[in-house]
Write a structure and sequence with these properties.
Layout: H1 3-10, H2 24-35, E1 46-51, H3 54-57, H4 60-63, E2 75-82, H5 92-109, E3 113-114, E4 117-118, H6 123-133, E5 139-148
Antiparallel strand pairs: 1-2, 2-5, 3-5, 4-5
Helix pairs in contact: 2-5
Length: 170
C-alpha cells in the first residue's frame, strides 16, 4: 500500500486531545498543505484564521452544536472563502473542501488529531462565526478544524466497497 493511502486510511475524526502544544511551525505546515490544494481557475479563494484565544474558543460551542471538543484542542483552524477572489461563482465550496482535506491529511501524517466541523452552509453557524470573529461580508466561514495531539486512538477503517462502483452508466 502506498504511503499516501496509509495516511488517508489513518485519518480519523478525533474529538479528544491532550494538553500538548502544537508548534507554529507545524500549524504553518498544515496551512502550506491547505494552500497547495487545487482550486477552480487557480483562484485560491481561501483565507485562514488561527484561533487560540480561550475567550473566543469558549464561544464556539454556543454557535456550533457539535463543537464541544474545541475547548481541548491546542489550536483551531478556520477555513474561509474570500468571495472577492473567486473566479467561477460557487466553486469556492469545492476549493475550500480540498484545502480542508489537505489540512486533515497532513495532520494525520504528523500524528495529530483533527475533526472537520462544518460551518457552511448552516446559516446560523455562518452568521455566528462571522459575528464572533468580525468577518467582513465577503468572507464566508466554511470549516473549523480543531488541531491537537490525540487523547484517543481510532483504528484505520476499510471503507472500500465494490457496490459503490459503476462503469459507464448506472
Amino acid at each position: 500500500m502506498s504511503q499516501i493511502l496509509k495516511v488517508i486510511k489513518k485519518r480519523r475524526s478525533i474529538r479528544k486531545y491532550t494538553d500538548q502544544e502544537v508548534s507554529q511551525k507545524t500549524i504553518n505546515q498544515l496551512l502550506e498543505a491547505a494552500m497547495a490544494a487545487p482550486s477552480a481557475g487557480n483562484a485560491q479563494p481561501w483565507e485562514f484564521i488561527i484561533i487560540d484565544q480561550q475567550e473566543i474558543i469558549e464561544q464556539i460551542p454556543k454557535i456550533h452544536p457539535y463543537a464541544s471538543m474545541v475547548k481541548e484542542a491546542a489550536k483551531l483552524l478556520l477555513v474561509c472563502a474570500n468571495l472577492e477572489e473567486e473566479i467561477y461563482q460557487g466553486f469556492w465550496v469545492q476549493d475550500c473542501s480540498a484545502a480542508t482535506q489537505n489540512i486533515l491529511l497532513t495532520a494525520a501524517a504528523k500524528d495529530l488529531g483533527t475533526v472537520w466541523l462544518g460551518i457552511y452552509p448552516e446559516e446560523d453557524r455562518v452568521r455566528g462565526v462571522k459575528r464572533l470573529l468580525n468577518l467582513p461580508e465577503h468572507i464566508i466561514p466554511f470549516s473549523l478544524i480543531p488541531v491537537g495531539y490525540p487523547a484517543e486512538s481510532k483504528k484505520a477503517s476499510e471503507r472500500f466497497r465494490t457496490d459503490k462502483i459503476h462503469y459507464n452508466n448506472w
